[in-house]
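#lab-general

N.A. 3:47 PM
ok so I finally got the sequence cleaned up, no stray characters, all 161 residues accounted for. can someone with queue access submit it? mine expired

B.Y. 3:52 PM
send it over

N.A. 3:53 PM
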Amino acid sequence: MSTETTQGALIDKVVKIRRCAAVVKGGRRFSFTAMVVVGDGQGRVGWGYGKANEVPPAVEKAIKDGSRNMVAIPLTGTTIPHQVEGHFGAAKVVLVPARPGTGVIAGAAVRAVCEACGIRDILTKSFGSPNPINLVKATLNALQSLRPLSEVERLRGVSLS
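B.Y. 4:20 PM
back already:
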């Protein structure tokens, strides 16, 4: 259920839309929530959550929220520098760097994050909960724990290259 649009330089992908019903005197009143992943395709990505009485305003609010909460991810070419795991709730995601030409091997929620971030070659595996909202948060948790080679060298005080 991932739809994509481009606003200026930002890529946004709708990951999940949920409907909630409140029972009132005249029947049911529906409201909608939307989770959107927003990225610039060059190493910055964030997620946003929006709620409204109709779907388009919920998506707009989520895009606005996601663009406010973007984080920078260190990339090595078109992939990630090293293998990493991310957790959120019962969801666990393993991200493995891949050779150029591999593509994004991932499910819908993890794929949305990787493509919005600008990752073109990656292997992924998710464990535990299939909930797309938790998978997006677990993927971002994994991406935030990435360290570029230069930072690892600085922290260890050695030269690895």
